[in-house]
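Hi support team,

I've been running sequence recovery on a batch of backbones for a student project. Most finish fine, but this one hangs at about 90% for roughly twenty minutes before it completes. I'm not sure whether the input is malformed or the queue is just slow. I've pasted the structure tokens below so you can try to reproduce it. Let me know if you need the job ID as well.

Thanks,
M.K.
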């Protein structure tokens, strides 16, 4: 289509920025500011894609397309374009990656050229996953996410970073190899690797190969063993990106590839996947409530949220899809914001242990206000965007059985408990041993990269239909799903 260059630019802009920063003899500050500028321009181009995208049932469901044949005999092409859900997830990724880069500039990450080049490379890979319309291209971008993440955690992580990177690498590679096998079998059997032209498949084994990659990267219980150590050892902003952005690439893979292109296997395996999601939802919520540190609370809450999002996806109806996509955007913004707040608290106190914190609301109104706002949205008070997402998920999954909605409702109550525990432990309990009276409130540059995330959540709270109205085009494109949509 005429505006396919916008999609190409969203992929190539951060890639070009990464190469330039890696090769140019830039100072630490210059490398960071250039990466931040590239990320801000990325948001601007996404805004252009948003205004160019037209929701119309008479328009093909993949828009802003660009396609170039790579290997004609094998049916492999560079084929990219946006679906409705991918458009908003790309925007969420662009905004949160910009905030994470701004955080890293503020805290002055060492080896800046390598660090910021890795962050921009990760942006390219994530956007590529969302816009890929060729299975092999999807796999290339999927694997490309692993390279910068391995470097970002392995070089800038905490004392246990080697163990964290090794676990993350082994888990994700195992799942990815199964997905690659499925892609090869599917592409050769059809004579094309194009996602759109290939249509739907009824193969259970190919479906499970894709699912293996997605459940690990999300992660879904019981494939989450890498999660607690990676989130605790990664730099705060990288942990936020892992939780808020990378996991959404897996959730989008569930929606766009596993569910929409394998409707019958989805129907056959829906109950086992819902069972795993339910276990992870409760298990993650309980562990978040019992976690002794800030990172543990946010990390295990992410496990629970991915279980809830999986509920919405495998409800296999429009209400569930809408709720899941909205909650993907919500959780991405919330998780990155919370992890950055955790990092700022750790910088001020030297610890994230809950029993050593407390009393930080006194004399720090900005910190208290931002943490309270994010926390209240995260616990899904009525009127918030998280409430809208969770309500639609529970409505959707109710059609598969009222018991799933009961499990989801219990988990939502647990979420309120662990978020209130986190807020109380940081702000309202008596002052802990690690809290110094001289510890500063959030400063203006810190507010500059956190408040935009809060503002996005407030806008979505007022207008959740901005996200949900863009999902029907994907569902309508697949007649095999009609019996799933109420």
């Amino acid at each position: 289509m005429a505006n396919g260059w916008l999609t190409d630019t969203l992929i190539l802009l951060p890639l070009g920025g990464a190469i330039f920063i890696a090769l140019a003899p830039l100072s630490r500050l210059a490398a960071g500011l250039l990466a931040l500028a590239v990320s801000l321009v990325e948001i601007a181009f996404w805004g252009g894609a948003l205004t160019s995208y037209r929701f119309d049932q008479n328009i093909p469901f993949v828009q802003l397309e660009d396609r170039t044949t790579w290997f004609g005999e094998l049916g492999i092409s560079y084929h990219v374009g946006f679906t409705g859900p991918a458009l908003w997830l790309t925007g969420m990724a662009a905004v949160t990656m910009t905030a994470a880069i701004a955080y890293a500039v503020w805290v002055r990450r060492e080896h800046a050229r390598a660090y910021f080049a890795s962050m921009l490379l990760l942006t390219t890979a994530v956007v590529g996953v969302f816009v890929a319309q060729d299975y092999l291209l999807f796999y290339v971008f999927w694997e490309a996410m692993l390279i910068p993440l391995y470097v970002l955690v392995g070089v800038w992580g905490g004392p246990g970073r080697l163990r964290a990177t090794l676990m993350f690498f082994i888990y994700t590679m195992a799942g990815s190899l199964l997905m690659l096998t499925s892609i090869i079998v599917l592409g050769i059997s059809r004579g094309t690797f194009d996602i759109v032209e290939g249509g739907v498949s009824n193969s259970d084994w190919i479906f499970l190969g894709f699912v293996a990659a997605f459940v690990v990267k999300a992660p879904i219980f019981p494939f989450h063993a890498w999660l607690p150590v990676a989130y605790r050892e990664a730099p705060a902003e990288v942990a936020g990106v892992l939780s808020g952005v990378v996991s959404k690439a897996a959730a989008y893979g569930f929606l766009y590839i596993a569910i929409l292109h394998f409707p019958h296997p989805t129907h056959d395996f829906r109950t086992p996947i819902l069972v795993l999601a339910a276990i992870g939802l409760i298990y993650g919520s309980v562990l978040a409530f019992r976690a002794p540190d800030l990172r543990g609370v946010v990390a295990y809450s992410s496990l629970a949220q991915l279980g809830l999002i999986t509920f919405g996806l495998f409800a296999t109806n429009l209400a569930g899809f809408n709720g899941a996509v909205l909650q993907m955007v919500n959780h991405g913004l919330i998780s990155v914001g919370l992890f950055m707040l955790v990092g700022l608290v750790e910088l001020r106190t030297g610890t994230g242990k809950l029993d050593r914190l407390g009393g930080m609301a006194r004399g720090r109104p900005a910190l208290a206000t931002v943490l309270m706002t994010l926390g209240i949205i995260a616990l899904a008070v009525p009127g918030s965007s998280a409430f809208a997402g969770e309500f639609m998920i529970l409505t959707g999954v109710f059609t598969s059985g009222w018991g799933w909605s009961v499990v989801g409702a219990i988990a939502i109550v647990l979420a309120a408990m662990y978020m209130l525990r986190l807020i109380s432990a940081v702000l309202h309990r008596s002052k802990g041993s690690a809290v110094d009276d001289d510890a500063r409130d959030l400063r203006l540059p810190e507010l500059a990269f956190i408040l935009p995330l809060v503002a996005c959540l407030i806008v979505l709270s007022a207008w959740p239909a901005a996200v949900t109205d863009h999902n029907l085009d994907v569902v309508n494109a697949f007649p095999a799903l009609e019996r799933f949509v109420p």
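--
Follow-up from support: It reproduced on our side and the slowdown came from queue contention, not your input. The longest strand covers residues 63-71. No action needed from you.
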